[in-house]
Amino acid sequence: MRRSISSYFPRQGCFYIEYVEKYAHFVVKERRNFWKDGQMKNGRNAIFVALVTTIFITTNSFGVNLITNGDFESGLLGIVTDYTYIVPPGAVHNPQEYTVYTSPRLVHSSWADYGDHTTGTGNMMIVNAATAADQTVWEQTVTVTPGMDYIFTYWLSSSYHTNLAQLECTFNGSTVGTATTAPSTTGVWEEVSYNWNSGASTSATIRLVDLTRAYSGDDFAIDDICLIPEPATLLLLGLGGLFLKKRK
Questions:
Q1: Which residues pair with residue 167 across a beta bridge?
Q2: What are φ and ψ of residue 165, in 5° steps?
Q3: pLDDT for 89-124, tens place per residue?
Q4: What is the pTM of this model?
Q5: In this structure, which topology does domain 84-229 adopt according to CATH?
């Protein structure tokens, strides 16, 4: 039975192995278009070089999450917010309060009992939403490369089932995509993803704001926040060097 590439290279943090498989398989399939018979002693060498280059680029270039403490395992490190922090297991009963802990139920008896997205036993950011407008749930500023495409992702869940949160994402003050509604079923993690091009920017201030602003309900958690360069851009740049061998 043939093993997939992902069986040899497991996902680590924000490293999405499906991108490696997608582009590595593309190179293998199309290799005859880039190297004619006789240009390399063995066609398998072409496949090997392409795969190694692909994996090297992905693991070293976009395998590193630009977000600090996106999984909240380091507590409050890197969090900028307008919300009031409650030291767990203190009760998060009031609007515009949050904590970083292992289950919503442990800080509010009416909230669902479930684990974080990362491991099921680690930390998440647990939020009792604000009723005032334009209050930052989470924010962080990171250094970016001008003219680069990026993918921003995070995981969202509802800890209570009414007045679901709607989170808006902005980069450097400009809204990206549309606001995302938290899952209607409590304790279920759903991934939220946005594409963003840095343009002339050398830094990105990423901000999440809740638009629901309800006193009752509007309770949620976020986890595994991630910003990486768009994999296709990096892979095509790296593999382009291999394709030039055709002309030599």
A1: 180, 210
A2: -65, 145
A3: 999 999 999 999 999 999 999 999 999 999 999 999
A4: 0.77
A5: Jelly Rolls (2.60.120)
